[in-house]
């Protein structure tokens, strides 16, 4: 993939790995300082949930820890003891060839397919096995590799669905407390409208989701995830099926979200170059096992990673 913006990010990183002066347009209006305090503890990519729970949540501790997570489906061992830890405010990449277990990690964290072994700790609390809506309520939002939007609904209504975890009234309750619910809905709508502006979805705002092109559907999913106001955003191959311009937009968006909102992002990708350009740290999966972790430079120079990618390229070519 040749992405000019991503290439620029790559060479910027190579030239000055620790500078932060990105000459990018700002997508978020909020000015929030992200700590670049050099005394902050360097997070090990494999800090265990145990040490995190013992230490208690501080600004230095990871926001998310997956500790020795395993999951199988029938005879297929999709994850074999995967341990990753993500620092607050990081863009963390999870890479690997197709079928290596990336989406299974997302499903384990978000409760769709809980791990059969191991633990998941978010902001100091063990969330292993929580149902998806409870994981969402804790502050984790995701997008899906295969778009999961509601047919027969408009773009606006699809985005509104992301707010439901914050709505206090059930459908029945709403019948009785309609005035209160209406006031709540107005407040929710403002948030949704702000995101529609931010993600430049005005033109398709009222369109039925079926007629929206794929690249924009991905953006609608992103809006639906963000409208839940998560602290951890998980993006499962957000650039798949996008054209060049949309990929560039998504890349900038991810970096801006990190820089200006302090949002933590777990970015799933199978394109190495995308992850290397955007992520602070990353982990590489191959056949359900973690074969490398660290900065993109460290992971990319790992021989196992080179072999896994060459191997998968040969398989695809053959
Ligand atoms: N719900 C499921 N049911 C059965 N097998 C699954 C399921 N989810 C994943 N798998 C299997 O687990 C392995 C890893 O899949 P996945 O996590 O989707 O890989 P990736 O996202 O890296 O492409 C694959 O062999 C896949 O077929
Ligand atoms: Mg996947």
At the first level of CATH, the class of the largest domain is Alpha Beta
Overall 3D shape: globular
**Strand coverage percent:** 15-25%
Tell me the structural class: alpha/beta
CATH third-tier fold name of the largest domain: Rossmann fold
Total beta-strand segments = 10
Rg is 20 Å
What's the quaternary structure here? single chain
Count of alpha and pi helical runs:
12
Biggest beta-sheet profile? 6 strands, mixed
Word description of this protein:
The strands form two sheets. A six-stranded mixed beta sheet has the order 6-7-8-3-9-10, with helices on both faces. Strands 2-1-4-5 form a four-stranded antiparallel beta sheet, sandwiched between helices. It has helices spanning 4-15, 49-55, 102-110, 132-138, 155-160, 171-176, 178-198, 214-226, 244-261, 272-278, 296-300, 303-317, and strands at residues 62-73, 76-87, 91-95, 117-122, 125-126, 140-142, 232-236, 264-269, 281-286, 289-294. The chain is an alpha/beta fold. The chain binds adenosine-5'-diphosphate and magnesium ion. The site of adenosine-5'-diphosphate has 11 residues, from β2 and α3.
